[in-house]
Structures are given as structure tokens and as C-alpha cells.
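User: Design a sequence. Structure:
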């Protein structure tokens, strides 16, 4: 009887710890930029960046990380797509100055994209403005 209670107690504690670990998990991804782009006033030079976002619903906070340093922290929208995209990539908008601003990041095999700025209000920006492919 006592061993059954101990086993049940250990099992319950394990399940609670596992549930807590999953509840706090951030969503992650990767962005490979092939040109200098601007996001939230920060320039991202060509290279690979790690992405982490947190939030509930469609509004999230996106951290763009290079190495161990967060280079940009911006609000973003998690936008559902009608079907999964084929590969990782991003879309940009060319500004009057000729610079490019990042408007969305999409992930291969996923049915969502991260969208910011003016693109946050629109859905389906991947199909119309796909620029970078990872």
C-alpha cells in the first residue's frame, strides 16, 4: 500500500513537472538573411539569426538573436496560412530610399508566418512578396 502511494506520488510529480515545462516553452525558428534588411529600426546584415517568440493568440513578441545577443525585440503577428509553405524564407518591402524592410518570416512545413509592420494587417503576404528563401 505504501509503495503504491509512493509510486503514485512520484508519477504525479513527474507529470506536473512535464506539464509545467511545456507550458513555458517558447516557439523558435531560424532566419537566414541574404541581404541587409531593416526591422524595427535595426539593420540585419546577411547571416543566420535565431528566432524566439512568446505570447498568446496571434500577438507575439519576437526576439531576433545573433550568436548570444538579442539584436531586435519587436511585436509581431502569428498569421495562419491556408497551407504549409515549402521552405523557410522571408518577405521584404522596398522603401523609397532603396533600403529593404522585413515584413514577414515563414517556415517550411508550417501553416503560419510571423508578420510585422504594415504586413501584420494583411494575410497571405508570403505568396505575393516572397523574397528570401532559406
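Assistant: Done.
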Amino acid at each position: 500500500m505504501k509503495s503504491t502511494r509512493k509510486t503514485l506520488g512520484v508519477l504525479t510529480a513527474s507529470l506536473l513537472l512535464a506539464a509545467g515545462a511545456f507550458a513555458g516553452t517558447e516557439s523558435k525558428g531560424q532566419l537566414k538573411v541574404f541581404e541587409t534588411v531593416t526591422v524595427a529600426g535595426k539593420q540585419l546584415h546577411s547571416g543566420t539569426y535565431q528566432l524566439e517568440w512568446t505570447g498568446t493568440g496571434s500577438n507575439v513578441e519576437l526576439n531576433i538573436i545573433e550568436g548570444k545577443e538579442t539584436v531586435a525585440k519587436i511585436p509581431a503577428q502569428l498569421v495562419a496560412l491556408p497551407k504549409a509553405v515549402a521552405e523557410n524564407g522571408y518577405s521584404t518591402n522596398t522603401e523609397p530610399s532603396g533600403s529593404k524592410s522585413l515584413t514577414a518570416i515563414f517556415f517550411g512545413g508550417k501553416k503560419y508566418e510571423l508578420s510585422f509592420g504594415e504586413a501584420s494587417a494583411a494575410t497571405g503576404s508570403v505568396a505575393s512578396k516572397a523574397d528570401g528563401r532559406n
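Residues 10 and 16 are 10 Å apart (CA to CA). The chain has one domain: 26-133.
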